[in-house]
Amino acid sequence: MASPRAANPGRTARYYRSNPKARAKHNRDNNTGGKHDKPKEYTRKHSEVRRAKNIMGKGGGDVVKKKNGSWGTQSMKINRSRK
Q1: Are 76 and 61 within 8 A, CB to CB?
Q2: At a CB cut-off of 8 Å and minimum separation 6, what does 10 contact?
C-alpha cells in the first residue's frame, strides 16, 4: 500500500507530481536494477585483484584494467566519471 500523500508537499514533490515524465525518469534512475549491470565475473575478478594488492576493504582507489592488459589503481573520481 502506498503511503498517504503529504498535505503540504515540498518543492521537489510538487514538481514530480506535475511532471509525470520527469517522475518516471527519476524512478528509473533511482531503481537499483540499473546500478548493478556489471556481470558477476567482472566484480569477482576486480575483487581478486584488490585482495592480491592488499587493498581490499581498506578504501583507496579503484582497480582498473589498463589497455596493455595489466592491472593498476586509479582514483575513484576519475574512474567513475569515465563512461
Answers
A1: yes
A2: none
| Helix, strand, coil % over all residues of the chain, rounded to 5 | 50, 10, 40
Q: Which three cell numbers stand for residue 16?
A: 514530480
Calpha distance 37→19 (Å, rounded): 28
Distance CA 82, CA 19 (A): 30
Instruction: Work out the number of other CB atoms within 10 angstroms of the CB of residue 63.
Output: 21
Query: What pLDDT does residue 79 have?
Result: 87
pLDDT at 24: 94
